[in-house]
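Section 5.1 Outputs to date
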Amino acid sequence: MDEIPFLQIERDGPVVIATLNRPDERNAISTAAHSAEIAGFCAAMTRDTSVRAIVLTGAGKAFCAGGNVKNMRDKTAMFGGAPFALRNSYRTGIQLIPTALYDLEVPVVAAINGPAIGAGLDLACMCDVRIASNRALFAESFVKLGIVPGDGGAWLLPRIIGMARASLLTLTGETIDAAKALEYGLVAEVVAPEQVLERALAVARAIAANPGHATRMAKRLLREGQDMKLAPLLELSAAYQALAHHTCDHAEAVAAFLEKRPPAFTDQ
């Protein structure tokens, strides 16, 4: 395992800032240890009910350049081994990330400070809200290297931008700029490079201003609603709502609203 953690973690009240910390490698996800670290971080954030929002960004000039192409060439690290071993490396390596981020209850805001390429684009798609620098670039570039999205991109991208545009990006591997990403609905906002982290933090703080139990369960409903029929989603919504009505923070939110004062939530 690398001596320096792949994720640099900072805390700002109920908001956690997680930074991919390999700027010299454009924050490429190069080893199984990187994937395991991200998965472990997600599990820890779900357990910590005092965390109400997360900002995910990259150190240096890139958000995430995807996989390490030199390792692909040399068939080393996560790209080594016979076909059966390589298949297992994906399943126990980088594929830990989409399942971990899907199961993560805390809302995640991506501050896309630079290129999000290949697995880096898919990583951004795993987040709930995406704020991009106007210098950011995006590519589902796997076919350019003669491979396919191995980390869930073929499931993620169509759900965000629709099948037609996802097919265009996936089958051509072409790069789009931030303006086109905004037009496609891939990102929610585009801002100046020096503003991207602060804007992402502002969104995260706006999320974190609400009771954590409500945003966590609302996120789960949004996720599950992508694949459920209306009737079972309504059943799940009713169950979650019953839980929400019996929290201390719900009672505090109602009292603060009626008394016209700021709420003081205790994550209970």
